[in-house]
Amino acid sequence: VSQIAAPALAGLMISRFGVDAALIVSALLFIPVVPILTRVRPLPVQAVARPRIGSVESLKVGVRYILGDGRLRWMFVALLVVVLGVNSWGAMFPTFTEDVLGRGAGGLGMIVLGVGVGSTVGTFVAMTLDGRATDKAIQIGSGLVFAIVVGLIAYTPSFAAWVILATVAACVGTVFFVHNMMAVQLNTPDE
What we know:
Elements: H1 2-17, H2 19-30, H3 33-38, H4 55-68, H5 70-85, H6 93-100, H7 104-129, H8 135-154, H9 159-186
């Protein structure tokens, strides 16, 4: 909930009262959490007998395994394409909100609210789609829709359309990432 509501509230506060007021309220809201955090104790470490190999060697073993498994290989290629090609879409929000849409912090808060709602819905959509189509179909479909919607955002001068498209992009992007991670975990042995 905080990832959805907080950006919208922060944007509203910044636009009405300034950055200082928003930071002060944020700090005050964290104060009740401090006593709870001081009571958290780490779980005892359970020793597991495993051969010790270095990080680089472990990485090499993992890469060799992925390259040797056709299903995992294409999932990681799909992940690489989406991460490098589309996933930095959120970095343009502040500039577009201010310079193109002329909305400032309040507008940015609304866009980020849409992203939070879309991501939440996308998680449930990903769970619903699981088992209804192949891993490839879900990931290729959601990855393509994600890329198309982000492309549309770049050419949209309307603030309302931006919020709607950002919500949709977050939804389908989340479907892609949740399903990709789920499929990788389910197709990879524990050891």
